[in-house]
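[agent] plan:
  1. take the single chain provided in the ticket
  2. run structure prediction with default settings
  3. attach structure tokens to the ticket
  4. add a short note for the reviewer (M.T.)
[agent] executing step 1
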Amino acid sequence: MTTGLSRTGLLLAGLLFGTQLQAAATDDYLGGLKALEGGDREQGLYLLEQAAIAGQVDAQFRLGELLSGQHGERWLRAAVRQGSRPAAVSLAQRYYDNARYRRAAQCWLHAAQQGSSEAQARLGALQVVGYGLPKDQVQAYAWLNLAASEGDAEVIGLRDKLAEQLTAVQRDAGEALSRDLTLHPPVLPGEPPCGE
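[agent] step 2 finished; step 3 output follows
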């Protein structure tokens, strides 16, 4: 009986400790944001980093956005591993800006699978020109069609302009493919998953 109580006690102590750590990380995150708003970048970054180290995903994302180079990428990758769709989109843009198109495509695929219409539109644009993904107008149309379902006028215009270049059979194939893309996104062989 004593063993059962001590196990229960240890479990409760672990839960309390974990809850306290989460609360402290949230406090650091909010304090970091407040310091940044007040113009104290050094203190703001320090507090955000403390929260990020504790695993606070919003702090990891925010720190990744604020820091340049590999240091920022490190925190964006950490946030992606915890499921942050905005971090995946941001990391993809960093890779794209540095001409690392396959890595960008991999992160946009990750975000697109989570429903990001911005990532879906980017994938369509990549496939029109063949950056990071094979040049494929039907699949590009499928991604743009999926992204256009969110109502973005610019994406709708791009999709419609591409549709003018396709045959009716290609458009039909693209529309059918767009219904399946988030369930079965393409795979980029040789590329590690986004966030790794």
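[agent] step 4 note for reviewer: The chain has a mean pLDDT of 89.
[agent] ticket updated
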